Amino acid sequence: MEYNKNKLITDDGVNLVSQSLQEGQKVTFDAMIITDTPLPSDRQLSAMTVDNFKNVRKYPITNLKKGNNSVQPEAKLDNNGLTTDYPIHAIGLLAHVGESNSTLFGITQNSEGTPAIITKQSQTPYFITYDMAITVTNPDNYTATITPAGYVDQTTFDEEIGKIQTSIKNIDLSDAVKKANNYTNSVKDDLQHNIDTTNQRVDTVHDQLGGDIASAKSELSGQIGELSDKSLKFFSDKFVVNDFNNYDQTGIYPISGSTPNNHPNEEVPSWGYYGFLQVKNYSSGNAYQELYDLSGYNSGFRHPMFYRYRDVGNWHEWQTIATTDDTDKLSDKINDLSNNNPSIFAGWLQDGDDLFDLMEKEGTFFDFNKQLKNSPVNYTVWSKIIVDKNNGFTSMTWYDSSGNIFYINATGWPKNWNSWQRIVNNNDIAALSDRIDKAQEQIGSDIRDAEQRAKDDANKKIQFFNNETDAHNANLPAGTLKIVRG
Q: Is 62 exposed, middle or buried (0-12, 13-18, 19+ CB in 10 A)?
């Protein structure tokens, strides 16, 4: 164990010494405290306070020794009331000045090996005497509250007082007064020297500060001049007249009724532009222009603001600068599209829903094999139903997983749904075409059969003979034509 290597006066102790010197009062040692818990490792030893001592035991000061440059308050660290052994991890010295509260003046902690142990009390009292030697410049400025206090009888007290008074009377203070005066004069001379030296330093600093201020003013003035050269100036006498390309120097140029070349690609009214042109020149060949056309803004004829830039000597096309009016109009258009967009998902249909109840709704609805009222089909199927409302006209289109498409609209006032109409698709056209082809083939076959029957019938109604006798004797059905070959 070792308690002397890390011994020091705390920050609060230093403040007490300073307070003592300022108020002309002594530092009074009150007590010693110990802790069986290690001090916080993240805190400097000089910054410790009473609050850093845990499970504290407190002991009164029993003696105060003084040397030429030191004071040694002493305490007996006993085991009174201890039920377990108590390891001493740190020892603190409490002190105060005047009416101030007692605070941690000095501190030391075990720096080597196992800390000292105050053994628990069984039947034999036990104590460790510890004195904390502290180096100071003026030991007489320190005192202690000694406990227990001593008692003397009145006679002894009077005798001791008489001895003290006799000793005081016999003291020759003349030499001490002389030394004190000499010391005072020496202190005054040193103080005057320090004042003179301080004044010289103040004068030097003042001169240096004056030079720095003057230099800073000069530098600031130059920077202000440079900023002034780069700032936007309004050239009230330089109107934009012939060509926007001619204006590439930083500044603001007025425009009054002219229509310069290379203006924004738009229809320009006869009265020309009224407003101003703002130009920023960044470097050789690079510039930026903004055109503010106040006449266009006031008349509503065209857009009020445009910009373009030039790099490597080439001017780019004018671009329109959006205003709040533009964003408001765009927002209105978006809202119109959102509110009148039948492609927006409107919900899933359920069993028992009536399609005709969608009269006042809009959007795209879906159903998954649901029983729907007023459906164009009499079976359940996957379907998508689009309800479209446009300028008072309401229609509904049905698409299902079987490939069918039906359409219905609402007319009259109040509006009523008409009948579902099936829309022909490619499959329907192919089937119809096939039916037409088959019909044409059947008609062709029927015509050919008719022609053959006609020929057969014709052959039966006409008979040819080689002579009149044979023709006369032939017994033929009535209406048969007899022809004799010549």
A: middle
Three-state SS sequence of 215-240: HHHHHHHHHHHHHHHHCCCECCCCCC
pTM over 0.70: no
- Going by C-alpha positions, the residue among 76, 108, 103 that lies closest to residue 92 is 108
Outline where DSSP puts E strands in 101-222.
103-109, 117-118, 127-131, 134-135, 142-144
Exposed, middle or buried by CB within 10 Å (0-12, 13-18, 19+), for 283?
exposed
Residue with more model confidence, 50 or 340? 50
d(CA 69, CA 43): 29
Residues in the chain: 486
Residue with tokens 């008979």: 463
How many domains does the chain fold into? 4
Side chain identity at residue 2, one-letter code: E
| Mean pLDDT of all residues in 155-173 | 67
Beta strands in 312-412 (DSSP E): 314-315, 319-320, 345-348, 363-368, 382-390, 393-400, 405-411
**Residue 373, domain extent:** 340-423
The last residue of one of the domains, among 325, 348, 369, is 325
Alpha-carbon distance of 207 to 74, in angstroms, equals 57
